[in-house]
Specification:
Strand content: 5-15%
Strand order of the largest sheet: 1-2
Distance between the termini: 17 Å
CATH architecture: Orthogonal Bundle
Radius of gyration: 19 Å
Oligomer: single chain
CATH class: Mainly Alpha
Largest sheet: 2 strands, antiparallel
Number of domains: 1
């Protein structure tokens, strides 16, 4: 086995790091609901986009996974996605252990404030984890399936189609569970249907816009890595 096969490359590790960073950030910011005014009116949302705070961070994970799938193949990308899914539980355990630990009198942040900000609600965690494992595995599978049909050409189609469909899956699962299904099952207050619809539309529009805008960046990353890396895995074929 050659060194290029056995040793991860800097681009490979960087893409994994970007993926994990986006995932952890999304997990910690998902509970905050954001609101942005826009200069025009849209169906359902009107002139205001309402979306979970994790929308941008989570969109970054799809960018990283698409680059990784194109460069290193479906199997390698699936490993990253599913190992990162398991790491979600490690993040939750570490944050929870810090939240329940005694707080020092000199701490600049009180125990309640820390828990309120960093300890995500159970509903948000449930929605986020299920949405992640379904949408990310779909993204990797669908990206590779399109590549089997189109060959090495039409990277733009793979990026937009796989991300566009997976983001729709992610958005519907996350918002439905976190803000409607789980609270209803627990007997808690459920968001108004109009607000839930606004969350779905607002989050998806932002994610789809990012998918369209990041396509040139995906091309650039793939081209640079292929030019600079001698690994036979790069190209999305050897690592299937």
């Amino acid at each position: 086995m050659s060194d290029s096969t056995a040793t991860p490359t800097i681009p490979q590790v960087t893409l994994i790091a970007v993926f994990v960073t986006g995932l952890v950030t999304a997990q910690l910011t998902a509970a905050k609901v954001l609101s942005f005014s826009i200069p025009f009116s849209l169906p359902v949302t009107g002139s205001e986009l309402v979306l979970p705070g994790a929308a941008v961070a989570y969109a970054v994970t799809f960018f990283a996974s698409d680059c990784y799938t194109e460069l290193y193949g479906k199997r390698a990308a699936q490993i990253v996605v599913n190992v990162a899914f398991a790491m979600n539980f490690l993040v939750l355990a570490l944050v929870w252990s810090t939240a329940v630990a005694p707080v020092a009198p000199t701490s600049p942040v009180g125990g309640e404030e820390f828990s309120d900000v960093l300890l995500p609600a159970t509903y948000v965690v449930a929605g986020s984890l299920l949405a992640y494992v379904v949408s990310q595995n779909w993204d990797v599978w669908f990206f590779h399936r399109i590549r089997e049909v189109t060959g090495a050409e039409k990277l733009w189609l793979r990026n937009i189609a796989s991300t566009g469909t997976s983001q729709a899956i992610d958005t519907v699962i996350f918002v439905s569970i976190a803000f409607a299904i789980a609270p209803a099952l627990a007997g808690d207050d459920v968001m108004a249907l109009s607000l839930i619809a606004s969350l779905v539309v607002g989050q998806y529009l932002l994610k789809l816009s990012i998918a369209l805008l990041d396509t040139p960046v995906v091309y650039a990353v793939v081209r640079v890595v292929r030019e600079k890396t001698d690994s036979p895995h790069v190209g999305g074929v050897a690592a299937e």
